[in-house]
């Protein structure tokens, strides 16, 4: 669901995921870019601050090689109840998101997306590797390796210095 069935362990660039309309997207197109991968939800207490700040960071750094990759997820109190296209419409209309909103995925459990298996195996979190809530963020370097993982309560703007460093600005 939402990604290819193999789970390579070298780079996020080796994965293919589905966009919000179900078309394949080879993540190798992001080779050479710094990525922030986020599991998003439209009905979460963190929604407004995260989407607002993700859009702000994206607009500030997109011309410097930065991308946000958003994966809607309905695993936490069913806070992303609509379709993948509805999640994309919500983010683009309400928060002016210009970054990709992919197909809804599961980030934990037997049906979790392979790209999330890779992310979690690269950087475990507090109390183990499972994703605890919406808006868990993974910062990925230009080679597709996970630099750092941030919990839901870490705002996107709190990560800005790490993004600048990954982009080579600091």
UniProtKB/TrEMBL annotation:
Compartments where located: Cytoplasm
The organism's place on the tree of life at top rank: Eukaryota
Main location: cytoplasm
Gene Ontology CC annotation, any one: cytoplasm
Recorded coiled-coil stretches: none
A Gene Ontology molecular function term of the record: phospholipid-hydroperoxide glutathione peroxidase activity
Pfam family, one: GSHPx
Keywords per UniProt: Cytoplasm, Oxidoreductase, Peroxidase
The protein, known as: Glutathione peroxidase
Species annotation: Nicotiana tabacum
